[in-house]
């Protein structure tokens, strides 16, 4: 076969590259193709270039995907590899998320300079995170902490911690595992107190919706259970907002052939929280999660949401 290599688009961070190479390795195995049959194409995104502000201030999740989605639509790449967590719920016309890889650990971890665990941090210690969800959850546990925005890719954040810009930070264990860096984790956070962002820990593959060759390529990579869990979490997110301005957690945990679903919304200061827990059949999990989100909206009331945008 001398056809053009199959082009896999990705951001250029180390984590993104590891994820793209994982997809390439799985494609090679699924189709018995050599490495040369694939090309990993690095695309720089606006999200990678903005380092000093919260994503919520500069336009949210779309920043990590816009340029990559344009490359897909222009035909410069055949598929794109993303962290599902970074994907807005609205996928642009003409594109589709068609494969979700088996999910990594969904939990967050605390990494401290000297404190091993959140409870060990001294009063008023400075902790950095760019995630409104992590900030709000942390405020519930430790209202005394001085929370600041800490941005950049995983390596950059760990360097900032090492330099003493903050006493601690929170990251996804999935990313650390993929980078072989889980050793830096001080405390793995419990799912009850620290439910993950929708999509955390799951790599997804995006393609042009009408591209049958790409569909046939990636189909063997799709993990059905992870795919259904992600549809549920993203349906929950879509009802609630879907932007980065809002502290939202959602986790569909497989149990037998059902999901234990946990969804949570918080005010950014962490003082108010509403959560839902229910069992959902896998087949109708997305509709059930959307319904649960609508009930949470009604329960929380409009003054709760004023706090999200105020
Ligand atoms: N927003 C950055 C981002 N997107 C996905 C991950 C981790 C890997 C994953 O959730 O699959 C991270 C870093 C982090 O939150 O620690």
Highlighted features:
single chain, 310 residues, alpha/beta, D-Maltodextrin-Binding Protein, domain 2, Double Stranded RNA Binding Domain, 3 domains, five-stranded mixed beta sheet, 11 helices, 13 strands, 35% helix, globular, binds ligand PBG
Question: How many beta strands in the DSSP annotation?
Answer: 13
Number of domain modules: 3
CATH homolog superfamily of the largest domain: Periplasmic binding protein-like II
Distance between the termini: 58 Å
Question: How would the global form be characterised?
Answer: globular
Q: What is the number of helical segments per DSSP (H or I, 4+ residues)?
A: 11
Mean of residue pLDDT values: 93
Helix content: 25-40%
Sequence of secondary-structure elements:
EHEHHHEEEEHEHEHEEHHEEEHH
Ligands, ions, cofactors: the ligand NCc1[nH]cc(CCC(=O)O)c1CC(=O)O
Main sheet strand line-up: 2-1-3-10-4
As residue ranges, the low-confidence spans are none
User: Main sheet, how many strands, which sense, barrel?
Assistant: 5 strands, mixed
Query: Per DSSP, what share of the residues sits in E-state strands of 2 or more residues?
Result: 15-25%
Domain Porphobilinogen deaminase N-terminal: 6-214
Domain Porphobilinogen deaminase C-terminal: 230-293
GO molecular function: hydroxymethylbilane synthase activity
InterPro entries: HemC (IPR000860), Porphobilin_deaminase_cofac_BS (IPR022419), Porphobilin_deaminase_N (IPR022417), Porphobilinogen_deaminase_C (IPR022418), Porphobilinogen_deaminase_C_sf (IPR036803)
């Amino acid at each position: 076969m001398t056809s053009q290599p199959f082009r896999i688009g990705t951001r250029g961070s180390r984590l993104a590259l590891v994820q793209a190479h994982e997809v390439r390795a799985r494609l090679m195995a699924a189709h018995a193709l050599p490495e040369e049959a694939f090309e990993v194409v690095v695309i720089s995104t606006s999200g990678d270039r903005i380092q000093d502000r919260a994503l919520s201030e500069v336009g949210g999740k779309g920043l990590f995907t816009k340029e990559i989605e344009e490359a897909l639509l222009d035909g410069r790449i055949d598929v794109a590899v993303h962290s599902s967590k970074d994907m807005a719920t609205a996928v642009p016309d003409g594109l589709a998320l068609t494969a979700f890889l088996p999910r990594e650990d969904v939990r967050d971890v605390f990494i401290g300079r000297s404190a091993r665990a959140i409870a060990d941090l001294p009063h008023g210690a400075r902790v950095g995170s760019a995630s409104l969800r992590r900030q709000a959850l942390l405020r519930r546990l430790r209202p005394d902490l001085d929370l600041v925005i800490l941005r950049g890719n995983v390596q950059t954040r760990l360097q900032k911690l090492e330099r003493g810009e903050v006493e601690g930070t929170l990251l996804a264990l999935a990313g650390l595992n993929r980078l072989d860096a889980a050793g830096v984790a001080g405390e793995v956070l419990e799912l009850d107190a620290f439910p993950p962002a929708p999509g955390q820990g799951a790599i997804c593959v995006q393609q042009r919706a009408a591209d049958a060759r790409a569909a046939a390529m990636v189909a063997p990579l799709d993990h059905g259970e992870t795919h259904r869990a992600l549809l549920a979490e993203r349906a929950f997110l879509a009802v609630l907002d879907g932007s980065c301005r809002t502290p939202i957690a959602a986790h569909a945990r497989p149990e037998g052939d059902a999901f234990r679903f946990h969804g949570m919304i918080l005010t950014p200061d962490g003082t108010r929280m509403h959560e839902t827990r229910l069992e959902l059949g896998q087949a109708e999990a997305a509709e059930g999660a959307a319904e649960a989100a609508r009930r949470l909206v009604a329960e929380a009331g409009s003054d709760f949401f004023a706090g999200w945008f105020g």
